[in-house]
Description:
The complex is a heterotrimer of chains A (about 600), B (about 240) and C (about 280).
Chain A: H1 2-33, H2 40-58, H3 62-85, H4 95-115, E1 130-133, E2 136-139, H5 140-162, H6 164-174, H7 176-180, H8 186-212, H9 219-234, H10 239-260, H11 265-279, H12 311-323, H13 330-355, H14 364-379, H15 385-404, H16 413-432, H17 434-437, E3 450-451, E4 454-455, H18 459-481, H19 484-494, H20 496-501, H21 506-532, H22 542-555, H23 560-576, H24 584-598
Helix pairs in contact in A: 1-5, 1-6, 1-8, 1-9, 1-10, 2-3, 2-4, 2-8, 2-9, 3-8, 4-24, 5-6, 5-8, 6-8, 9-10, 9-11, 10-11, 11-16, 13-18, 13-21, 13-22, 13-23, 14-15, 14-16, 14-21, 15-21, 19-21, 22-23, 22-24
Chain B: E1 6-12, E2 14-15, E3 18-19, E4 24-28, E5 33-37, H1 44-52, E6 59-64, E7 67-68, H2 74-79, E8 82-85, H3 97-104, H4 111-124, H5 126-129, H6 141-153, E9 159-163, H7 171-186, E10 190-195, H8 198-204, E11 207-212, E12 215-221, H9 222-227, H10 230-236
Parallel strand pairs in B: 5-10, 5-11, 8-9, 9-10
Antiparallel strand pairs in B: 1-4, 1-6, 2-3, 6-7, 11-12
Helix pairs in contact in B: 3-6, 6-7
Chain C: E1 5-14, E2 17-27, E3 32-36, H1 43-50, E4 58-63, E5 66-67, H2 73-79, E6 81-83, H3 96-103, H4 118-129, H5 132-149, H6 169-182, E7 187-191, H7 199-214, E8 218-222, H8 226-232, E9 235-240, E10 243-248, H9 250-255, H10 257-264, H11 272-278
Parallel strand pairs in C: 3-8, 3-9, 6-7, 7-8
Antiparallel strand pairs in C: 1-2, 1-4, 4-5, 9-10
Helix pairs in contact in C: 3-6, 5-6
Amino acid sequence: MLGAWFDYTVNGFVIGNIYALLAVGLALIYGVANLVNFAHGSVYVVGAYVGWAAITYLGTPLPVTLLCVVVVCALVGVGIERLGLRPLHGASRIAPLLATIGIALVLDQVVQLIFSPDPRAVPMQVPDWRITLGGGTIGALDLLIAGIGLTSAAVLYGFLRFTKLGWAVRATAQDSDAAKQMGVDTDRVNLVVFAIASALSGISGVLVGMYYNQINPAMSFEATLKGIVALIIGGLGNVPGAIGGSLILGLTESYGIALFGTSYRNLFAFVLLIAMLVWRPNGLFAARRSLPPEPMTGTFIARSRPLKVPSWAVAVVILLAALLPLLDAPYLLQIGANSLMYAMLALSLTLVAGTVGQVSLGHAALLAIGGYASGLLALDAGWPVAVAIPAAGLITAALGTLLVFPAFRLTGHYVSIATLGIGEIVSLVILNWTGLTRGAIGLGGIPPLEVFGYDLGSVQGTYWLCLVVLVLLALLQVRLLNSHLGRSWRAIRDDSVAARSYGVSGDRYKALAFGYGGFAAGISGAITAHAYSYINHETFGATISILALTMVILGGLGNVVGAVLGATLLIALPEAFRFLAEYRILIYGIVLLLLIRFRPQGLMGTV
Amino acid sequence: MSAPLLRLEAINSFYGPVQVHFDLSLVVEAGQIVCLLGGNASGKSTSMKTVLGLQRPGSGKVWFDGADITGLPTPRIIRSGIGSVPEARRLFGAMTVRENLLMGAYTRSDKPGIAADEDRVLGLFPRLRERLKQRAGTMSGGEQQMLAMARALMGRPKLICMDEPTMGLSPLFVDRVLELIQAINREGVTIFMVEQNASLALGIAHYGYVLQTGRIALEGPAAALLRDPRIRDAYLGGAAA
Amino acid sequence: MAPILEVRGLRKHFGGVTAVADATLDLHEGELLSIIGPNGAGKTTLFNLISGLDLPDAGSVRLFGQDATGAPPERLAGLGMARTFQHGRVFGNLSVLDNVLVGAHSRLRAVKPAVPIIGPLLEFALAAIRPAAVRAEEAALRADAIRILSVFGDRLIPRLDHPAFSLSYANRRRVEIARALALHPRLLLLDEPTAGMNQTETVEMQEVVADLKRSGLTILLIEHKLEMVMRLSDRVIVMDNGNRIAEGLPQEVRRDPAVIEAYLGHRATGGAAAGAAVEPAP
């Protein structure tokens, strides 16, 4: 019994070391660039695959394998900073954050295209012996990982404390303008930090590959998340804190698994994340509270004057869209219906991220809540579909607002991290609450769309229903934006402090925005569930959240017409280029990056 | 007469859509203390940023030591021989006093020279010697201001730009800081100083400029400016009573 | 009669630096009280403490007879306090008119019900349905906003639809003041309303503030331009290093040697320079 606990502790420490290699890099990057690098896990995957390729094709011994990983990942890091982020100096505040998301999409897809999405086994490069200690055991790999973790920490400490460049890194992290005025080339410091952080991330990837004896391109997302959780526990930008946070996270997960089983592991991590964000947003090791600095007015989103679309043109487009089914092209209609469902999600996100400035990275969770609510109401409670769908919208509005409520006092990056975590929690709850959601089996046999006896299960029916719902939602949203609510939402986004000074309470209006956003997204998820007849906990994954964000940026943040246009373009265009299907997500990533760089206000302009 | 050490020539700068400087020209002669006076938002801090390369002017030129430094990146401008004492000091608060001093010598690589200068600077600011291992952020405002000046000196600059060096200091420290500025100047370092506090700055300066909404409203030798009744109108604002 | 604003022993530290050491002041109805002092004296921090943007380490604030120490800014706005910011915090992507309308936010009837959940839902419904009463209220607010903006002549009226980020510095400051007035405040806090303005604009703003005072509004003013302070203030408080070093009628304060020293420079004490800077030209 005691031996088992010893093993769990060892396991927790080893995982903690792996997280530390990730989180330390995130902390360094946050320090000098004021940015949570959402591409960090992607570099880790690159590291894992470079290690695998070196061993498999070149037969490299362990030190050479690690050297290859360090060199390639450092170069990738340099590329991310130099090509992806530096051109964004002086852009709106959310631009670099969105750019790292785009970079993550691109890197993941490139890895997948080169190495295929199938899992690979990383050959073990350390002897397979274990020492028995007090009933538990420690293996050579455990010692290697701990050794690399400790060595990296020591080297990093020495670098930061005793070298000139290390001082420059610390000085830049504390005050980059002042560092420049000491003659520090902060651009170079940024490059160096990205190189170091990426190298550490790559090492982490290859070690994980050996530890679990398996790698796949999809593991980047979880790595980014875990690194961020550890970072938040330690405090953003706090390097020693990141190491402490990682060990705490590793041990929590390991003991959690011991007590409750493997499927709860990530749930612990994300609940810990949200708890930290709510109670100790500055991390366990800091106690600093400061007033947000006075922002330059309107720097959150790109300044622009939105294109005004005359209402007759909108009416004509709606009419044409309504006539589309007459063409008798079921495939086209199917794409149309899909676009419309996504457009509802984009409406919701453009309100929350664009109008109110809360860049949600977990928006697909609202679809999941809506889909499951409507599906279960129809299946288990026997409600008519036409009642279940709006009820699901209301449930999503209430539940979504309630879930994000703890994050309302957060700003900027913290909101994105919190929503990402909340999104993951929703999906994990769906997976684990078997009694209600049927767990991993998913929800099958969801009744088809029908409205009071009229069967809308056909492609035409689905399309028409989606069109009507979308038009109603869009009109309502425009109406709200033209009321005092729209004014208040945008005021909070532009300057929440000034807004509060005029009585515009952040909590109240964020709640209303998430409420309406939850309603629209919930309806979208519900319709999707009935149209597909089957959903599971992976139907509405993180990729959809990112896709929705790309749509919203493409259309122009906060812009209702833009959201619909963005959704239509991103769903319909890939269909037109079907031969590129393999590259679809890669193209999304590139579109996102190009938009942020060259047309941050999107096609229709930010509102 | 030799060429001036620093010259701003017809600078027009912008902050977003808003113009901050209108054809701003000024000159800092080597060996002098020159102050640029003006109220809040008169554009004086932007002038400092323009010299240091933190803000690129829309048009106009900045000359330093005979070279055109307009639009150069800040680190290169610092390397060319300019030290900076930023507004609100901007120390590296989590680093020790000694580390802050060594950051000031970042552009140099002559270890013996740096060590010698550290000793010399600490001679000028004996209070800092007692606190070498202390974190800079835990010191009082006056001590922080001294460290900021000492840090700038460590780079062996020809010119030190000071942005409101007396801001937020107690009277005791204000006097001390002003004496130190004069002491630094006596060692041959030229000082270009932005100040709000007119008579105080003019009391130690050789030459002064008064900036008002981005234009030079008044200039002259410090002693003459001190006696000039127009300074009140130009600087404290409002029409004559 | 009880003062509108009573500040007692307010204190605030940031790291090793004391921003406000011990601030005490009373402000009575209809009065214009100015706070002057050199940069970094703690004036803006004091404003932030009074207006709920920062929490004091010690001391108390009473507003309209109620305890308002550390109260959130939303509540203070509801009580009738409006403030402007030192660097003009307008809502950059909102039009001039919308900026001013945000100022009127706490007057909206839809915003009033403070019942949790029901209140916001009702507000949402009113915004979506927009019954005649709501439309009438909105129209009245718009008319009021335009009336307020016309205080600045034709500086802003032709720019009602322009986004605030496109405005000049001086116009942003005007928008801020219009936004504050739209709250129909009983107490107005102005943080350097003429910063960055040239002579003509300063005189114009001085007239605007003088008119506000004449209309009976109670005003707390931070200002650097002494001319304006001397002309408008009923009383002046001088701060230096987070301390109140003098308080009194403008003429008294002007002659106080401690003030001359703190505000105009220690070297100048009693010298010709101080005379030139402080006394009006004969």
